[in-house]
Amino acid sequence: MWKSVVAAIALLALSGSAFAASAINRDAQTRTLVVTEGGAKSELTLAAGETVEFCSSGCFVTLPNGDLEALTGSETVEISGGAARIK
């Protein structure tokens, strides 16, 4: 019984971090994404060369060009040349 409980807890702990989206800023300038998660908006500011994880349970993200994209939490947003691509 305890083995099953420990295995379930380990699986939940791993799945929480495994399903976060990430954003990578490959530009020399700071870039900002607007993230809407659970009805709350926040700005995600990425310094030059910075990588961050966000959006663990699905969200909407407004890209630097103003486009709005829905994320499930497994994507990578790559910013380069002022434009963002979702992989």
Model description:
The chain has 1 helix and 8 strands, in the order H-E-E-E-E-E-E-E-E. The protein has one helix at about 1-20, and strands at about 20-25, 30-35, 40-45, 50-55, 60, 70, 75-80, 85. A 4-stranded mixed sheet has the order 4-1-7-8, with no helix packed on it.
Radius of gyration, in Å, reads 15 Å
Structure classification: alpha+beta
Strand portion:
over 45%
Helical segment count = 1
Sheet having the most strands: 4 strands, mixed
The chain-level mean pLDDT equals: 84
Strand order of the largest sheet: 4-1-7-8
Helix percent reads 10-25%
Taking the alpha carbons of the first and last residues, their distance comes to: 40 Å
Tell me the total number of β-strands.
8
Topology pattern, helix = H, strand = E? HEEEEEEEE
What would the principal axes of the Cα set say about the shape? globular
Low-pLDDT residue intervals, each spanning 5 or more residues: 2-17
Structure characteristics:
87 residues, alpha+beta, four-stranded mixed beta sheet, four-stranded antiparallel beta sheet, 8 strands, globular, disordered N terminus
Secondary structure layout plus pairing:
Elements: H1 2-18, E1 21-25, E2 31-37, E3 40-46, E4 51-54, E5 59-62, E6 68-71, E7 76-80, E8 83-86
Parallel strand pairs: 1-7
Antiparallel strand pairs: 1-4, 2-3, 2-5, 5-6, 7-8
